[in-house]
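Let us practice reading a record.
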Amino acid sequence: MLAAPLLAPVALLPSIVYRLLVPVEEPLSFSSELVMRTPLFWWPHFAMGMLLARLYNITRYDNAWKVVRVPRRPVSAGDVAALVLLAIFCLDDATLRTIFCFDLAEPHLFIRHGLLSPLYWVLIYDLAQGRGILAKLLAWRPLELLGEASFSIFMWQLPAFILAFILGTIWPWGSGSFVIVLTVILIGVSLFSVRLFEKPVGNWLKRKAISAENR
């Protein structure tokens, strides 16, 4: 339990060290990409998710953890957290610097590396409980399919960016049709990847694990 409030500051450490060593940020530089892309720097985020599941015993195999005594209000705390996150994501860096008192520092790394983690905790917990408008919206079957393909979308995003650079030589980047076509391609490839690769491999690994346990 004591680890919970410590994980967010730990998640911020890479951005803090980066800001101390690199006062003036250069977009897409080696150092900024190192902080943004290195998997090790993201482990506190994974740890926060696992800790949340452990604290509230959240598991797909047993629904006893769900708090049935909590009133099912139309709007949940998770809905409020989602709106705050959406508002923050829609703001430019200059406005974010003013709100979060960043002075001259670029805020986007701090925001991505742990600053908003309390809001994510509230959002994830209420979604797991199925409370609120957003939870009902995400229960819609087409959005469930997108949720199942979320990891595949993450895996295929880099090839999609490469494809975007190639298409950008013959197709205007800023056009709405460009964004729509690229999004459809990414989602389509991801859904096929889930059906033809992720699920078959996952089922095979489960069978292997069960077989090993029964020996």
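A brief commentary: The mean pLDDT is 81.
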